[in-house]
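Entry:
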Amino acid sequence: MRFLIFLLILSNIFIWSEITKALNQKNEVSFLDVGQGTSVLLAEPKISILYDAGPNGLKLTKALDRHLPLIRKKVDILILSHADQDHYNGAFDLINRFPPRIVVISPKDSAEAGWQALLQKIKAKNIAIIALKTGSLVETPGKKLFFLNPPINQINSLNDNQSSIVIKAIEPTSSFLLAGDIDKKTEFDLIKKYNRFLQVDYLLIPHHGSKYSSSDEFLKTILPRLAVIQVGKNRYGHPNGETIQRLKNNQIHFWRTDLQGELTIR
């Protein structure tokens, strides 16, 4: 009997702890450690947005379990930057555990088999799919999301990486640029179009630190307080030494999820 009472007390403490956590939740952006892939959680008290789902559903859902309060275990909007498995594959498990209300995709179509299977699963779950073009704006109680890429008038000439959804997220105290797998050409196009509007506090380094991204011009235009490299064990040499050197040359501090784990900005 005493043991049962003890369990009930523990249960009540846990429940109230989760309720308090939910009620006190403030804006936070978490660069999740999902291995060699991308997934960024933009959470606030009444809405959660996930930018990319990483390569592994188990790692993703475990990370989300840590961040989402028990009484609000849901992702409202899932944004998939493009059709590369290290950005979308975790969505298969996500849809089962935390089915989003809306999935946002790039206007660039892809015939890749896994991507098509995912789209079919999303439709089977009666989840809305929206393709948002450059110039779109999504506003929530705690942030504004500006969609800066891909340009719809050039979509057929772009490869999957170049057509990555690029978002500038502005919160009351911080700003973020989430850049998918864009390359140097796309970076140049963004600089030409947006120039200083690209400046943010935190930059998600494109393409996991590939040498084909994070050009000197791009870094000098943005000059973030911190650059985040989402990366894990891989055969591509990410992050490339040239990218690391460019960050150092521009005196930009950086965070690597493979070495330092996930990072949460509050």
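Residues 26-265 form a domain with the Metallo-beta-lactamase; Chain A fold (CATH 3.60.15.10).
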